[in-house]
Input
Amino acid sequence: MCIRDRSTGTWPKDMAPVVRSLLIGGAWLLATGFGITYRVYPFWRDSPRLFGCWGVFFAANMLASRWKNGLLTSGLVLIGTPFIAWFSSIAWKMVCIAADPTSLVGAVFWAVTLAVLLAGRSSLRRMINQLRWHLNRHRFEADFQAAAALDLTGGRGPSVLLSPSEDPEITAAKLNSLLTAGYVPELSPSPDLNIDQTDSLMDQELLTTKRRDVQRQIAHVHGKKLPNQVVQLTVDRDRLVAHSLEALRQFPVSDLARNRLEVRFQHEYADDLGGVTRDWMDSLGRAVTREMISAEGSVPLSPLPLSDLTGNEALDLVTIGRLMALCLLHANHMRISLHPVIYKLVVGSVVTTRDLFRETDGFYDTFVAQIIHGSAESISAAASIVGEETLHFVSPFDHRPMHPAGSETVVIPQNAAEYVAALNALQADSLASRETGLLLSGFWEVIPQGVLQAAQLSGPELAELITGQQNIDVLDWRAHTEYTGFSECSSQVEWFWEIMTNCDNAFRMEVLQFATGSGSLPICGSQMLQPKFHISRDPTASHLPQAHACANQLMLPECESLEELSTKLGLACKHGCGFGFI
Output
């Protein structure tokens, strides 16, 4: 029988596994025959007494156990003993060579050994992490698939936001309470209440203490940090979001939570002592924000669906949630723009009507607050704001009815509270999306909600811990700056601080990101930068400003005027993306 196709002259596809198995089997037989001929047989032929000992072992083994086990163990000893003796002789020769490092061979041996260890430590770490990933791949992929397969869009109104460690019914009840508990108190608001002011007066030192409490609790959840263990990520800056999310999925949650991150950009040369990780977090947060915000540039109530970055949009959102939690654990900052309600849902705080409309410019104060007041004049004023003579139970955004007879039902003082509740329910519908649930589930996998509540973290506090201080105080920045080659009264230093004082906050963040890797300051301001922000002198006037992000060091060249320094600083911040040796 011919197994080749005569019409095409090729082997059928079904024969490929057979041929592969025959080739592998032939290779094993050839290797076994070679080993028996040149290792096993010569060893036992030259050691008749040792062979006699093996015969006694074989006889005793056959009498003491079943014949199959006796044959198996005796055969393994018969074949394995020559190879163990061979490897032991090689190891002993290497020990003898290494014992005499003054000889030429010993010196070469140690030089090659040290060179291999130094050159291959990054590759060795990567190989170990890859091996751990493949050995436990079924468990990691199951975790991701379980988090990504949550159905969070069923039915109108608040949906079930599942956390892998929580019961679905309890979670659904919790979310419904979060979205309704804040409605009633705001129907009679105090005129002196200003939530924005109370949020801005948070005690920064207390925030640092709360973050340390979270870090201590995570040690009980994911285990203690292993000594000298890091999670090493290699990413491509040109494919920053997709490549970063793919790299993060190669590690289990416990390793990400308890070990330090070490980031390396492809084709960029820098040792990560903190600056590269800060730059990666900052750049990744801004890149993710560009994917999540709307076309008008506003921050939506629920994260917008991501484009197809890595082939699985659900896993992308879960991984972004995990990344936000890592920022909190490792005291890094990620400039990601999310609606404040998202942070309140993460910690389980009460969501109020003001929170739901916080990002809509002036909508709460000019429209919702008028209706909450409940008088006929205030309702009429609210109707004029949306361009209507009378206000009906329809959405002020897209004129969608919020009631079965919404187009005919007029808002009056007696049903003003019902209108506000319907408006809240409309916002809650857009909040309780599948994207929101996936983001929260990823965060809770790293930091369970119970840990956040035990630390008494609020939503605004969590947002500040993740995003950092983005309003840069120049006076505080200058007060905690050190100098090398300059004094505080040098013209270059005076010009630099004058530029920082006169520019907008966005450019200050660009300069800070260029010098330290992060465009946000730590919670307690510039004094918490480790090491301190440093301005050094570059004697070459033709250079652009340079930075050592890991050391928080900015090197300013000798410039002849403030305008020249400002121009060079702008060029460096605009085109100074990436790391390299100078």
DSSP finds 25 helices and six strands in the chain. Confidence is low (pLDDT under 50) at residues 1-11, 143-202.
